[in-house]
Each structure stands twice: as structure tokens, then as C-alpha cells.
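Bench log, entry 3. Co-assembly request; chain sequences pasted below exactly as received.
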Amino acid sequence: MTILQVRNLSIDYLAADGAVLHAVDDVGFDLEQGRSLGLVGESGCGKTTTMLGLLRLLPAEGRIISGEVRYQDTDLLRVSEREMRKYRWSKISLVFQGAMNALNPVRKVGDQIAEVILLHKTVTDKGEANERVGELLELVGITSEMARQYPHQYSGGMRQRAMIAMALACSPDILIADEPTTALDVMIQAQILDLLQNLQKELELSIVMVTHNLGVVAEICDDVLVMYGGKTAEYASVDVIYNEPLHPYTQRLLQAFPDVDSPASSLASIPGHPPPLDALPPGCRFEPRCHCREGICAVENPPLVMVKPGHYVACHMVGD
Ligand SMILES: Nc1ncnc2c1ncn2[C@@H]1O[C@H](COP(=O)(O)OP(=O)(O)O)[C@@H](O)[C@H]1O
Ligand SMILES: [Mg+2]
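Structure output for the full assembly:
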């Protein structure tokens, strides 16, 4: 069953100098219940914007230009802000990028989690909320006594676990984790990925995993959406993405990610830069960096085409 259906989502930012940045352009995906989708691409390709957009949490300069975000039978982009609050945290929860470093340093971690519970749940009793905090911490592998400690008494991995506990406070169906392992060392990354996998099974969560690391995706995702310059480059199951990647960008990304088992291996970077979002080229956004380009690529934007059931690619060089 599809639990979340995103269609034609486009998001702009209005920059201070008046420029319009097309950060997300016509992105769509299906999140199946109990499965996990990886959203992958280089920094700046629009991953965080897509996630903030579907939860309607964009900063003031962000604008949703078009799209549908269907949770069960409701288009979340069409409900009132008041109605929307019933979905955030309780149905769809987000571990914000970098949030583990944004915990309030002068408040106990447990109190910060309790606040979320008291704000969103019918639990009004402080004692009951604290009990729930203890359960949540244990759920993510932290002893409940740690609730009384301050963020600086937590290691990086523990702070990320606490953020995951907070995201789970209102028992959501969908967990979005935005770069949850990026700031952590490799050993701790693996532990956080294990935790997410176990939680997924235990709580029957559906997960969107946002990352720039295809190694992370290989570990835990069922499906993968590869974004480039605000657009979908390729979208398929994880096996297809790894074994039969068709988009030149996906192929390059796969060459670029370091071997998960030998983190010291060198990271081959893709030469060139992502496209300027305020002056997008008329053709394929990857064309200037592409090793397969031909004449048409600089002229016409390739549509996203289904090349096989469940395998979508936006590339002129694929499919015919
Ligand atoms: N508040 C903002 N105002 C203007 N531009 C922004 C803002 N937030 C992000 N952007 C731009 O939008 C693009 C996508 O950013 P983001 O969604 O954060 O990418 P990612 O998460 O993939 O790294 C980037 O070019 C970024 O500079
Ligand atoms: Mg981001």
C-alpha cells in the first residue's frame, strides 16, 4: 500500500536580491508502507527543500509552486495550517538535518523530548510524559536515566538517537531522516542505520532517508530517487539502481561513493558544478558534466520516462 504519494512538487526560493531559485522541479515518488525510500544527490540538489516542502515547513522565502502530497486520502498541500498540524509529528515526523547539534544546551534532553509529547499528545500529565520519554529513550538504545542529562553529556551518536526518539514521540507512520549519519564517524553511522532498520521493523515505520551517500542507501533502502539540480534523474528499486543504473549521473555517483567496508578508499568526485538554480540551462541540467552527452542534451530537457516497470530515467541517451 502506498502511504505517501508525492506528485509534481515544485518549489522556488525568492532570494534577497530578487532572484528566483528553482530549487525543486516536478519531483514525485511513492512511499510504500513499511518500506524505505532513499532520496540521494549532491549537496544543494534540493533534498531538504523537498522534505520541508511536503511538510509545509519551508522558510518564509520558500514557495510551493505546484504539486500534490497525498497522505492516505488527503492532499496535505490543500488542507488548512491548523489541519496540517495534526499530520506533523503524529503521522509524518522529520529528523531535521543537523538537529542533533541544535538541542538546547541548557535544558535536559528528557525535558526537550517531553515538551514535544506535551505539545502534541493528549498526555497532559508531566509524570506520564516523563514515563514516555523513558520508553522512547530505551527504544533508541539509551538508558532512561540519561533523560536527566544535558546535551553536552551525550556523545554525537547518542544525540542523534535522542533526535530519533523525539521524532517518534507521537508514534508517526512515516519517519523522514535528513542526513542522519552525516556528521558521525563511520562506526556510529552504522549503529544509527541499524537502529533505524530495527525501528522500522518493530514499529512498522515507513522511512524516507535523505542522504548524499549511496553507501547509506544500500544499507537500508528499498527504493531510491536520485535527484540532480532539483529534478529527478532516476528512480527505481535499490537493486536496479545498483545493478543497472541508466542515468549517467547515477553511474558517476556509484563510482564516487567510497567502499562502505574500507572508508579510507578515495572518493572520486564528479568534475564540474551543479547548475545555477536562478539561471537553469534549457537542456538537461547534468549536460555540462555528462560523459554521455550529445547535441540534443544542451537544447532539450529530457522528460522522466519509464524504461521498465518501476524504473524511471530522465536522459536523452536512454531508452531509444
Ligand atoms: N532559505 C533559502 N533561500 C534561498 N535558497 C535556498 C534556501 N534554502 C536552500 N536554498 C537553495 O536551494 C537549493 C537546494 O537546497 P537544499 O534543499 O538544502 O539541498 P540539499 O538538501 O539537497 O543539500 C540550494 O541551491 C540552496 O542553496
Ligand atoms: Mg539537505
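The radius of gyration is 20 Å. The CA atoms of residues 9 and 67 lie 4 Å apart.
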